[in-house]
Amino acid sequence: MLLPFYILFAVVHLLLGDLGGHHRHWHDALLAISLLLLLATVGVIDTGSITLKRWGLLCNLTCPLGADGCDKVLNSPWGTLFQGDGLSVPLSFAGFLAYSAVLIMALVPLLPGLSENRGDLARRTWWGLFTVSLGMAVFSLVLVGLMVFKIQA
Question: Do the beta carbons of residue 73 and residue 153 sit within 8 Å?
């Protein structure tokens, strides 16, 4: 649940360096981008495996706080975005899409052939990263509130 906040921190670090008049050199931003790539990859693997488990494509997963709490949350009505006509879209799939978006936006400025426009492209993707990661952090707070007060897990 803290992963979106770490991502938001890394994005804010990138933006403050860029907006604060420091005009980062490209190599100065690589550490923050590497952190974003690592965190987003962990998020993609985590939410992707939970989604695959809910769809019956993976068997058992371990939960850091014990299986009862995880199963209680994942199997609650709040654990599903859409269900009907044999199709079930778990909430973890939305997380998978969000972490995938962060991963793609962090990768775009690193693509070869973009060296001419790298600075401008990086600034644009950083604002996209900020928007997505802020939304993820707020949504995580809402989900923690639901988990504690509504689901009581």
Answer: yes
Helix (H, G, I), strand (E, B), or coil: what is residue 9? helix
What does the CA dihedral 46, 142, 19, 113 come to, rounded to 10 degrees? 30
Residue pair 3/43 in contact by the 8 Å Cβ criterion: yes
pTM: 0.82
3-state DSSP call for residue 62?
coil
Distance separating alpha carbons of residues 118 and 42, to the nearest angstrom: 26
140: nearest Cα among 38, 125, 132: 132
The tens-digit pLDDT sequence of the chain (153 residues) is 677 877 877 777 776 665 444 545 656 677 778 888 999 999 999 999 989 988 888 887 777 665 566 677 777 888 888 888 878 899 999 999 999 999 999 888 778 777 677 777 777 888 899 999 999 999 999 988 888 888 776
H helices then E strands: how many in the chain?
Answer: 5, 2
